[in-house]
Hints:
Blueprint (H helix, E strand, L loop, with lengths): L13 H20 L3 E2 L5 E3 H7 L5 H4 L4 E3 L5 E4 L4 H10 L10 E10 L11 E11 L3 H17 L5 E7 L3 H16 L7 H9 L2 H4 L8 H4 L10 H16 L5 E2 L11 E9 L9 E8 L2 H4 L6 E8 H8 L11 E7 L2 H18 L3 E3 L6 H9 L3 E7 L1 H5 L2 E6 L5 E5 H11 L1
Parallel strand pairs: 1-5, 7-8, 12-13, 12-14
Antiparallel strand pairs: 2-4, 3-4, 5-6, 6-11, 7-9, 9-10, 10-11, 14-15, 15-16
The structure holds histidyl-adenosine monophosphate.
Histidyl-adenosine monophosphate binds next to β6, β10, β11 and α12.
Amino acid sequence: MNYNRPRGTYDLMDQDIINFRTVEQVLRTIADLYTYREIKTPMFEHADLFKKSVGEESDIVIKEFYNFTDKGGREIALRPEGTASAIRALVESKKLVSSTLLTKWYYFGEMFRYERPQSGRQRQFHQFGIECVGDFNEYDEVEIIMFATNILHSLKITNYELEINNIGSNASRMKYIEVLKEYFKKHIDELSEDSKRRLEKNPLRILDDKEDGVKDFVKNAPTLDQYLTEEENAYFKRITALLDQFEIKYKVNKNLVRGLDYYNGIVFEFVSKDEALTAQSTLIGGGRYDSLVKQTGGPDVKGIGFGLGVERIIIAMGQDNPLFTPAQVDVILLPFSENALNISYTISNILRLGNGISCNISNKTFKPDKHFKYVDKFNCKYAMIIKDELIKNDKVLLKDQATRNEEELTLEAAIEKIKTNC
Length: 422
Ligand code: HAM
């Protein structure tokens, strides 16, 4: 019986897993630099958590949900995103009691969405996300965008555009939604089936729908800023002024609403211009949410954050990205006798544990040609030749695989050389 992996999933190995780990490491390092603390939540939650936060009418809940009834009769969902879970965990552990304290969290883990798989879109994918919760101001909000910009910079991704919008408060948006419904009703015949379904409950999503969003009547629809209060428009101006001041390039996209119900105020997306990602171009998406914490049973504090798809980011980095270096073995030990083989294991311990040098031992042969064939299978910096006559003099022969230079050295001197060059 042969088994294939489920559609929309993938296996990671060889260079791909090295690249994945590199990206994970960079993300974690940046999160540390911004003093964000890690939070790890379960991969499944009560389905209701996502219905109430991401939205009953969102694509994520209607089309993409991996939900099921467990043996105890509870409706469970594999998490489709990290924000709702993180906020649930923070509220549940009473980490958000004070509204004045700013708490900063990041997560890295698998998410699940039943989507049509294509390049940069899987059914199981990894998200790195951050959530900043508490009493933040415009500077904090702009710092979140800077954080995202710095991630792309650190990963050497340059071919992208930052789009931002202000979707205002719930009250302003409600007024606008009524106007929008009336407008789209006049164009009902031009709407896709998806948009027709959204018209009554979620007409905002028609604006940034991949299919309908490019049509002229959608581009010319009334815009939300006309229905925002003066204060809301002034707040957005302060944000864009700070972005200008910090020389962060952006484009205001008045049709950007994002597909998750919890947002209000500023929303943003970092959109790739890379051809490899034409259909799935949003690398990072985020925004502010003022009611989610309270709605999840916590205090009346606001939050802001973003999430990025690790697999999508790896595609955008490109195969020639200088961060994607092949795995290197520092040393391979080549013993030329039974005694040398035995001693190789003691040496390997000294190399690995005492000195952090990666190594393995060619232990199936004492023949030079077979040894060197073995070494060629690895991207190896040095070969360490161990022979009885060398052992007698407390020496090893260290061969630089790139230059082919060989040097007789004491083990201590060989270790110093390896540590300097690896
Ligand atoms: P989102 O826009 O739904 O936002 O997802 C964030 C990112 O996850 C996307 O920009 C994309 O890179 C990646 N992503 C989403 N779906 C897939 C998929 N099927 N395959 C590969 N990558 C995918 C959120 O999830 C919000 N929780 C972000 C947030 C955090 N907002 C505030 N805080």
